[in-house]
Predict the structure of Ankyrin repeat domain-containing protein.
Amino acid sequence: MAAPPPLSSAHVVCRAQPRLAPLKHVTAAVSSFLDYSARWSIESACARAGGADGVSLRLLERIAAHRAAADSQSFRAKRQRDVFHRQWEFTRAAAAAATRGDLAAFKWLVAMFPECRVTVAVEEAAKAGQLHVLQWLLDKSRRRELTVFWGAKELFFAGKHGHLHVAQWLHEHTSPPPTHMFFVTLEEAARNGDLDMVTWLCDVRGEWSPYAAVLAAGGGHLQVLQWLRTNLFSSSSSSISMDDAAAGGHLDVLCWLQDHSGYATHGAMNKAAARGHLEVVQWLHEHRSEGCTSDAMNFAAASGHLDVVQWLHDHRDEGCTTDAMDGAAKHGHLDVVQWLEANRTEGCTERAMDGAAANGHVAVVRWLHDHRTEGCTTAAMDGAARSNHLETVRWLHDNRPEGCSSAAMSLAARNGHLEVVEWLHEHRTEGCTTDGIDLAAAKGHLEVVQWLNTHRTEGCTSGAMDNAAAGGHLDVMRWLHEHRKEGCTTAAMDNAAAGGHLDVVQWLHKNRKEGCTIAAMDRAASGGHFDVVFFLQCERAEGCSAKAFVNATASGELEILKWLFANHRERLGRDRLRIYALGKFYILQWLKMEAGADEREAFMGEVNALAQG
């Protein structure tokens, strides 16, 4: 089929040059250069802003035109015809449109994929509070113009995200399932302090969970806590821990729990101290008997809460350990370090300077050097180099004898800190190992890889290309392919497949001979990378193992699982899929209704056995 018509912008450019205006092939070439729609997926187009003014629809139409123009024998065209891949593509795109409330894009998708059913989009619309999308879907499903799956986790998501009007509508017009053991809407509403949602869920939906009160207390939602204890639980209900409320600094909740069967552990004061809630620490000291441990001062010091440290020193006798100064130094709290030095006797360890150096707190490093004798280890310069703190690296080099290890340059290379790598090369003798290029390649730092190749002699291993593939760094892989001889292993394509990097998988297939293993498809299935799975099926012969079925089930990838049943049923092992499918509503429904009778009977027997057990 013909390519889509030239972009308006291409016409404008060519018309500005009278000699070019009549040359249609020039306009087409300019349009091809400017047109990025062929690189967009339908899902990404539905996820972008602009639905209100038709931008999304224009982009979708252009993407569709490019798809229609694809060679019928190409991988792309075969993928577009596959019924499972079409459903997968529709599901993801519809979810994106539903999240944004873009009903126009949703209608376009339904017209483009008329055979597909709506699943996850229902949940996404509920999650985002897009009631008009849900209303349209219900109307279409009642007219039997569209197959829509209701009864998954849409009410749970509406409740979790505070959309009471959506939850009420779902309850009135659909048949939401009762509370699921793994998805308790009441608990999420209590955690969020949404009293209106809590009362509706209890009064109308009949939800109940003793843990809801615990979550309300931990979040500092006193009104919700009081309502739950008054209306949902009897006075003999189990008591509630104060620890999380203390950690959050919720003194009003603590006071109320003190009079209503609350209990605490020493973790309450420890956590309050760590968060700097001095008023809570003082209240616990006066009203509770659990006390604290040395972790209270240790954590407070590490977090820089000097006022809490001082109060604990004056009013408690647990004290601290060397962790206090070590932690304070690591996080750059020089005032705390100095106070501990002047008022406590525990001191510190070499981890103090190591941690301070790694985080670039050169002032703390200098102070420790001048006032303490513990010193540091090579971890100090290694850590500073890793985190790009060149000033600290220089200071340690000039003032300390410990030096560094080869990890300094290797870790700096891994994180792309070329200036640090260059400085270490010029001023230190430790050098690096093959980890230098290997790690830099893994993170996609091509400039560092090139510099190390030019200035160092360690080289790399096949791990460089293997791990670059895992990160989808095709530019690094091409360079290594052209300039190094180590090559890669099957792990390269396996890793790229696991990460969903189709361009890398395709390049490896075309340019390298190592190939892949069955792990490629297995891991692609786990990540929901159907494009990669389909390419491997079309272009390679390794196939998959039984792990692919388990991975797709555990990840909730229904369409990939259905595709595996259709194309690799012989690879299905004896894994008890029910262990991985619990909570995966769409997969459970399909396995019950559409799988073969033998698989269905065995599967549902296992599910029922688990429910009864």
